[in-house]
Give the backbone structure.
Amino acid sequence: MLSIKNLHVSVHHKEIIRGLSLEVNAGEVHAIMGPNGTGKSTLAAVIAGKEVFEVTSGEIIYKSRNLLEMAVEERASEGIFLGFQYPVEIPGVSMTNFMKTAVNEQRKYKGLDPLTASEFLALMEAKKKLVDIQSKLTNRSVNEGFSGGEKKKNEIFQMAMLEPTLAILDETDSGLDIDALKVVANGVNALRRPDNAFIVITHYQRLLDYIVPDVVHVLYEGRIVKTGGKELALELEEKGYEWLKESNS
Amino acid sequence: MKNGFTNGIVRLREKLEAACSEVLARSDDDNGFIRKERERAMASFKRLGFPTQAMEAWRSTDLTATLAQDYRIFTEAPETGQDIGQIFQCDIHHLDTDLVTLLNGWYVDHGQAIRQLSCGTVVGSLAAARLAYPALFEAHYGRQADVAAGGLNAINGAFALDGVFVYVPDGVTAGKTVQIVNIINSDENIMIQPRNLVILGKGSKLQLVHCDHSVRHKRSFINSVSELFIGEEAVLDHYKLQNKDNDSAQVTSAFFEQQSGSRLSSTVITLNGGIIRNNLHVKLSGPGCDASLHGLYLVDREQHVDNKIVVDHMAPDCVSRQLYKGIIDDQAMAVFNGYVHVARDAQRTNAYQNNRNILLTDKATVHTQPHLEIYADDVKCSHGATVGQLDPEAMFYMRARGIREDTSRMLMMYAFAADVINHIRIHPVRHQIDEMVYRRLRGELSVCDQCILDCNAQRPQVFEIDLNKI
Ligand SMILES: Nc1ncnc2c1ncn2[C@@H]1O[C@H](COP(=O)(O)OP(=O)(O)O)[C@@H](O)[C@H]1O
Ligand SMILES: [Mg+2]
């Protein structure tokens, strides 16, 4: 589904991703772990299409297409979803209007008729239950005045609404208490299907107790330095990241 | 002054002075009140002349090209042979208004120059009101619009031939929204100077919607002055919608005076226009007044919009809030000058001012400046001005959800504008303005469906008023 080969990415002439390769197949859950500032969010943003990041070499193939040639919104409509580490507040744009526009623009892209108002509301009610999001949040402006936990749940809610093929969750678990963490994990598990895939970026092994990954990668200084099964996460939890610095220095 | 324009400006000045002499020569009132007012105003104009950019208040707005045009100036009301009421079809759903029309600055009377509505409100032409209600007229006319304050105010006062008069007696709640429509329709370039007087008695209530509308693509210059007197405990909701063609120039001056415990909500929406200058003066004369002044301007191409607001806190315990927001595209320019003056006795004043702008291009400009003068010590005042672009992080967030770039931009601009639109209390008007702003932001709003009435969007022929027949 996703194939990244020898990717190099710079921002303002500073190289952040330095030769990264990654293969994700349908039905898989990949976890990416690693210390702060090693390029995890950068990788996620490059896949989503953020323009400030310059791909200097390498390729990303998604569903047999060159992802790097696709516009941000086209990637989204082709099923790529980024759960933001820091969800953005958009004053004055209601969650409902935002989601309705997103759902219908994606439908339009696929040649489908827009959902009617009642179909849309029914969909929203169903997905709100899935992620245990309160109704008052969908009446407010996008992320405005939301608590940290509400913002993260809102990302999962949006993911549930848009039913992506490849979802990248960037530290969706950070700052969540155990209940919110379970909500996020349940949301992901409910959406897992043989034809979709997840990349879960996290610092902590505890999320991976609930979302069991097929593959765990360790990202360090812009490269994947270790790949293993779910037991690698436990090992990292025990040893921390210090050993990486030693073995890479 | 730019060379080449000088002759034109001299010509306009001479024309206005000659026309004014003509008006004075055939003075038609018994007691000489209006004659004295006109003479005083003319003397003032002779002294002050037209505004120039050398004047602080006009620094950012250049009227040179406007003043250098050759205009036809009317000194008499043309005979109306056509019932304009018949050709107006108001398109605001569920809004039943008492409609008042000015055609090229003259009251269109449908055979009745002044009428009393069933609720008791009096609506009519200024010229008729002067004769029908002399005491009321003289007690309020010219009290706020100071002819010494500016040349354009003065020249308006030197004519003061016609305009709209509204009087809501004490304790009366005007049943329907009163809607004033200014139509400009001429085969020639014209300069018009409507003069409006609105009086709200004690404890009365009025909703007033004021729309400007031009029909022909000729140059027009409107220099309007409105005086609005809000009596004790009275409530005025005032909406002004400007959507004129790019060849028009408009200087509007609205003077509000508020007596104790009164409330004013003013909303000025500018969707299109050539050069627009809106002067808004609010004098809080009695204690316990509340004034909310909202504005939204969406300008592009070569358009120029200048909002000058003066709030005079003369009495204690009043609240004023200014919220003006604008989106400026292409090479357009917006100017905002907000003055708040708090007199020594105006203790416990709350005055807020906020001007926010989004510039869509490198060539778009905005000049925004607060001016606070505070002489009382127990005062809460705040002011803020921002000039920014659309938040690129928010743009990316929306696009990452599959929303196209143009739609994302639209949603954000619309959200920015919604802040002002949401203050509109008349629901059908809010709905219509909302719709117009939406279309304006999508680039779908044309100048022919400019007015809030949206009368001729589907029926352009209804506006083919032949001036020769009027
Ligand atoms: N927009 C940007 N401009 C400049 N530097 C950036 C930008 N985004 C990220 N970086 C830098 O790239 C590096 C990797 O950041 P990031 O991908 O956010 O790491 P992680 O998510 O692993 O904590 C950091 O050194 C960060 O400062
Ligand atoms: Mg990060």
In short: The first strand of chain A starts at residue 2 and ends at 11.
